[in-house]
Structure to design on (722 residues):
């Protein structure tokens, strides 16, 4: 009897799947018509594929979103946005890009290196669609613009800011996921701290290990890691943890100590009650990258290949929102900045 | 006969009830959130495109392997939460082995798959041994081993990593062309250049072996008997400790296969962008499929279908794709509850029937009345 039950369960599950298919077939399915589109001049259609966290992470993805919003205001583009889920299949990434293309969004921005393989495949299948991918230069195709950032250089500057601010001679670094990309943030930060004072102690903690990418979207883990560092004596903690950074700020607020933001100017984007603990932010101008891509399409100057956004190109930098850095500190940081631009200091990548 | 018809009705009731409840609750959630209900169901009940059909089958393949691994434990009331760690350790080992290209072509693939099974089995064996020798609950043991697996693989991956210029992803040596399993084309059938993983065959084989071993062998009988009643199994001469270790090892070996279609048919390396969380998804699929070889296949397809179509939620309906996670969660919960409700209803019915028959026994004519 028990067996019968099971087989019936199976049949019902099958029925669900089948009805799901058939009812869709009956409906006049035309995904393209749902988009508003063509009223006057054909607007540029941009599809955004965000990384885990999506718009609203107050950090990496939001920085990309800022660039999109700017382009929207300036060029009146039509944009569609979609975000990755932690633990999704590789095919889900390809499917996301394909669905954007199906819906008529023939300029695609893939935010994050996790899209590398998906962009490689989909770009080859759709040679007329233009792509931009952030943080990856491993794909080379005529229809792919690679937007890369010298995050290590920007991290060097906030490392110097942390070293010039700490009173306990003890600072911390919270990384989202231990990938090469985030290790470059840490390497730059460490170098910046040591350039000011080699005796400063640096705590380091990564929230998750790949392939678990939830470390970019776990406020609780960010909070716990930062709390530990503040309790053990650190008084400035730099995070490169995307959406988890919100937890670092909460911990800083509770401990009455400093935190350093990342990617966006977080003293402007973070939750309002924690903005006053953000000493500075390492700004990675993903927004400039995204804007540059859309502008190139608008101007008809799009060209595939890698563009490096470094200190010289003002693709990375630090913020002074909130006026927490003294004039003396700022002049010292700017001095480092000039030395990096002039090539007198080479910032390590790992 | 009449009672049987009633039982069939009850059997259909459970899954139908579960799915209806899931749809209803999701609709309520959508209404509360102020989302377009109609647009959401239109996206989710749309016929999948050919390329999506391929993606659904591919995802179902991997989920099915994971579900079987979980089900082997479930059948014996062993909760192998560690499939997640087992498949990652195993995939990594297989990727490193295959990436070294010691053996030519197909031989390399076959031996690498065996390496994966052995690694998965060994990883699960630790939890099995801890349980029989030290009484450590397999739930705790496997969860802890998942953490160890994550950090161990992350550490070893850095040692084994091969740098690809310009990429921010870390991965093992990429497999040579002759060590990849070619995909199965469905171009002739549904007209899409996308291919099904060649190792989808593996899932079918594993499903058949699972069915055969469980229902046609002495070992399978012992396993099910131990799961149904440990004391009864002991009384009939089953060595329970041996069964625990054996089923953990088998479960781990099956878990080792989970990553194989991905490794040989898609990623060609183990890297930090490898798909995570398949072990947990497999638990949902096994639960929904009631550990039945065919039931789990349907459940895996349903899961793959929901996952693949969830992308359209954001793009066509403007609703977060997390909604699908909510739907999946509600389906699993509803299934569990619905089966319990129906089980109790069936129990009551049966008790009623037995009571009636007992009462009717002394008076034959009355019994005949009931039968009529």
């Amino acid at each position: 009897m028990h067996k019968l039950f099971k087989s019936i369960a199976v049949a019902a599950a099958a029925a669900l799947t089948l009805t799901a298919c058939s009812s869709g077939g009956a409906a006049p399915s035309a995904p393209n018509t749902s988009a508003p589109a063509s009223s006057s001049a054909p607007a540029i259609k941009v599809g955004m594929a965000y990384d885990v966290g999506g718009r609203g992470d107050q950090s990496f993805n939001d920085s990309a979103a800022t660039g999109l919003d700017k382009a929207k205001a300036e060029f009146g583009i039509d944009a569609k946005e979609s975000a990755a889920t932690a633990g999704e299949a590789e095919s889900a990434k390809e499917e996301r890009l394909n669905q954007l293309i199906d819906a008529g969004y023939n300029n695609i921005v893939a935010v994050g290196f996790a899209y590398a393989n998906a962009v490689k495949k989909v770009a080859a299948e759709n040679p007329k669609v233009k792509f931009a991918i952030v943080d990856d230069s491993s794909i080379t195709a005529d229809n792919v613009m690679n937007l890369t950032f010298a995050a290590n250089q920007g991290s060097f500057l906030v490392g110097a800011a942390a070293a010039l601010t700490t009173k306990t001679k003890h600072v911390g670094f919270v990384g989202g996921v231990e990938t090469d990309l985030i290790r470059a943030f840490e390497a730059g930060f460490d170098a910046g701290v040591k350039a000011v004072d080699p005796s400063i102690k640096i705590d380091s903690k990564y929230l998750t290990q790949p392939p678990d990418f939830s470390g970019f979207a776990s406020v609780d883990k960010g909070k716990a890691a930062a709390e530990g560092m503040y309790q053990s004596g650190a008084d400035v903690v730099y995070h490169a943890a995307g959406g988890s950074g919100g937890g670092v700020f909460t911990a800083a607020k509770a401990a009455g100590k400093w935190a350093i933001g990342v990617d966006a100017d977080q003293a402007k984007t973070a939750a309002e009650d924690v903005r006053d603990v953000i000493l500075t932010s390492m700004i990675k101008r993903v927004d400039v990258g995204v804007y540059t891509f859309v502008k190139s399409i608008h101007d008809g100057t799009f060209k595939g290949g890698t563009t490096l956004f470094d200190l010289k190109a003002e693709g990375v930098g630090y913020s002074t929102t909130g006026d927490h850095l003294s004039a003396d500190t700022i002049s010292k940081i700017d001095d480092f900045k000039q030395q990096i631009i002039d090539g007198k200091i080479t910032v390590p990548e790992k | 006969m009449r009672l049987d018809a009633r039982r069939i009705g009850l059997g259909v009731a459970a899954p139908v009830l579960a799915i209806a409840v899931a749809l209803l609750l999701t609709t309520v959630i959508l209404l509360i959130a102020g989302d377009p209900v109609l647009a959401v169901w239109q996206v989710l009940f749309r016929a999948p495109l050919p390329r999506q059909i391929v993606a659904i089958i591919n995802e179902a393949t991997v989920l099915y392997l994971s579900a079987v691994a979980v089900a082997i434990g479930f059948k014996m009331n062993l909760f192998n939460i560690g499939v997640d760690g087992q498949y990652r350790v195993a995939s990594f080992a297989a990727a490193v082995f295959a990436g070294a290209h010691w053996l030519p072509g197909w031989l390399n693939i076959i031996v690498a798959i065996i390496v994966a099974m052995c690694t998965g089995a060994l990883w699960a064996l630790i939890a099995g041994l801890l349980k029989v020798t030290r009484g450590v609950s397999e739930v705790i043991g496997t969860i802890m081993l998942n953490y160890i697996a994550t950090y161990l693989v992350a550490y070893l991956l850095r040692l084994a990593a091969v740098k690809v210029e310009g990429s921010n992803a870390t991965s093992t040596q990429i497999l040579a062309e002759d060590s990849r399993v070619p995909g199965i084309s469905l171009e002739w059938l549904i007209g899409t250049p996308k291919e099904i993983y060649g190792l989808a065959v593996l899932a079918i084989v594993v499903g058949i072996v699972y069915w055969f071993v469980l229902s046609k062998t002495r070992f399978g009988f012992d396993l099910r008997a131990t799961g149904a009643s440990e004391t009864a199994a002991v009384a009939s001469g089953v060595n329970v400790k041996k069964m625990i270790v054996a089923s953990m090892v088998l479960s781990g070996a099956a878990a080792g296969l989970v990553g194989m279609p991905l490794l040989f048919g898609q990623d060609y390396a183990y890297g930090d962008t490898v798909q995570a969380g398949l072990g947990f998804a497999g638990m949902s699929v096994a639960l929904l499929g009631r550990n039945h070889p065919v039931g789990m296949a349907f459940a895996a397809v349903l899961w793959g279908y929901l996952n693949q179509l969830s992308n359209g939620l954001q793009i066509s309906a403007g609703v977060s794709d997390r909604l699908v996670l909510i739907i999946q969660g509600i389906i699993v919960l509803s299934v569990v509850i619905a089966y319990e409700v129906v089980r109790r209803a069936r129990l009551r019915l049966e008790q009623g029937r037995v009571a009636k028959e007992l009462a009717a026994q002394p008076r034959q004519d009355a019994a005949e009345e009931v039968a009529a």
In short: Chain B touches chain A through 71 residues (CB under 8 Å). Strands of chain B lie at 184-185, 195-196.
